[in-house]
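Hello,

Our lab assistant flagged a job as stuck in the queue for most of the afternoon. It eventually completed. Since we weren't sure the result was trustworthy after the delay, we are filing this so someone can double-check. Below is the sequence as submitted and the structure that was eventually returned. Let us know if re-running is recommended.
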Amino acid sequence: MPLWLRKLVVDFVETGLAALFALALVIPGNLDEAKAQALVIGSALAGALIAATRRAVPEFLAWLRAKLGVTA
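-- returned structure --
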């Protein structure tokens, strides 16, 4: 697994855990509350993935250029 991908995974896990721990998770009382909470959790994880991807893009592009033998 390339270094940029390992960094992306670690960064996503760290950011995602921080986002989930920051949420005040409660046990939903009904299906509507469960859906709303799932949406909030999904949004937090999507934000974590976007942040991790943004930080990994420069290293991914450098890796891709090296693999394809293309200079900047």
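-- support follow-up --
The delay was a queue issue, not a problem with the job. The result is valid. The chain has a mean pLDDT of 84. Residues 31-68 form the longest helix (38 residues).
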